[in-house]
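Example S7 (structure tokens).
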């Protein structure tokens, strides 16, 4: 048999066919099965099950991105001020997340999640207030710190372009802002 250029066609070897069948039977079909049924195949070793579950992680897009912000209310003022996160959390963990994002959302274990989350956020609020006083010694002291999330709705017809970046809190409508917690600080 010849290809369209008149040269002999390249045929797969028996080894190539065996590898293809192995890949289909031992990876593609099991991964498809675990993704569709959400059940693990127990006869596979645990590291293979782990790899298959990673292969099924991103099957659905996220409809809303939570963008966290820090706000303070200063002594003698009623309005909230949004603080620039870069002054408080310069270290990037990975991707688009900062240490602030990690602590705010993932700073606790699942066990007793609600109480530990509030404890973690209360400690974080005290630290933010101390850091604010250090950065702005002539400014009035913060009396409250709150953590809010701007809920960015992802439009599949007009997806965001370029790299992920935090947009200003003023860009969100009032119904897109979620107050996560408010803390009195000293």
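Recovered sequence:
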């Amino acid at each position: 048999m010849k290809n369209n250029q008149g040269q002999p066609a390249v045929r797969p070897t028996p080894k190539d066919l065996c590898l293809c069948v192995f890949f289909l039977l031992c990876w593609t079909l099991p991964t498809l099965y675990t993704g569709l049924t959400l059940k693990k195949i127990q006869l596979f070793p645990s590291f293979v099950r782990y790899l298959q579950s990673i292969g099924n992680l991103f099957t659905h897009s996220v409809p809303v991105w939570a963008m966290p912000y820090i706000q303070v209310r200063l002594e003698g003022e009623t309005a909230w001020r949004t603080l620039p996160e870069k002054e408080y959390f310069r270290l990037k963990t990975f991707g688009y997340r900062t240490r602030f994002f990690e602590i705010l959302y993932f700073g606790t274990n699942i066990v007793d999640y609600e109480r530990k989350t509030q404890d973690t956020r209360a400690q974080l609020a005290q630290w933010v207030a101390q850091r604010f006083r250090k950065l702005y010694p002539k400014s009035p002291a913060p009396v409250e710190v709150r953590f809010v999330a701007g809920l960015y709705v992802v439009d599949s017809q007009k997806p965001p372009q370029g790299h992920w970046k935090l947009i200003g809190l003023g860009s969100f409508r009032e119904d897109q802002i979620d107050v996560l917690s408010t803390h009195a600080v000293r």
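Notes on this example. Residues 64-184 form one domain.
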